[in-house]
Amino acid sequence: MITMYPGKAAKLGALLEIWDDAYRAISGAQDLAFLGYSLPPDDLQIRSLIVSGIRRGPKEPDPITVRNPSPEVHYRFRELISREARSDYTAIVAGAS
User: Fold this and answer.
1) Does residue 87 carry a pLDDT above 80?
2) Is the separation of the CB atoms in 96 and 75 below 8 Å?
3) Which whole-number Å values give the CA distances from 93 to 4, 23, 67, 89, in the listed order?
4) What are the domain boundaries of the chain?
5) pLDDT higher for 21 or 7?
6) Of 52, 56, 36, whose CA–CA distance to 44 is shortest?
7) Is 21 left (phi over 0), alpha (psi -120 to 50) or beta?
8) H/E run at residue 5
9) How far apart are CA 10 and CA 35, in angstroms?
10) CA of 81: how far to CAs of 7, 32, 74, 95, in Å?
11) CA–CA separation, 49 vs 52, rounded Å?
């Protein structure tokens, strides 16, 4: 995810399309999985994008899957995004297949 940042609107033109695409993809998804993303508490833009995309969809998607080895990340997803989030504590290893 690429976050927005204040005072840089002129440089964000190309990213606005990406944000629109992300919003449409989230709002139309039946399955959502967040792999390795830690959902930092101060990342309000992405949290807003995720929550508004889920709420805009025709129905709530199946429970969100969070794949991250950190228990606190799973807690944040349940607290800030969805209480029904499924947990997968498997680490993501680059280059692994």
Assistant:
1) yes
2) no
3) 27, 27, 12, 12
4) 31-92
5) 21
6) 52
7) alpha
8) none
9) 30
10) 27, 12, 10, 29
11) 5
> How confident is the model at residue 3, as a pLDDT?
53
Surface-to-core class of residue 32, CB atoms within 10 Å of its CB (0-12 exposed, 13-18 middle, 19+ buried): buried
- What does the pLDDT read at residue 9? 58
**Residue ranges in the chain assigned as alpha helix (H):** 13-28, 44-56, 71-80
Q: Tokens 């449409």 sit at which residue?
A: 24
| CA 26 – CA 23 distance, rounded (Å) | 5
- The pTM assigned to this predicted structure is 0.75
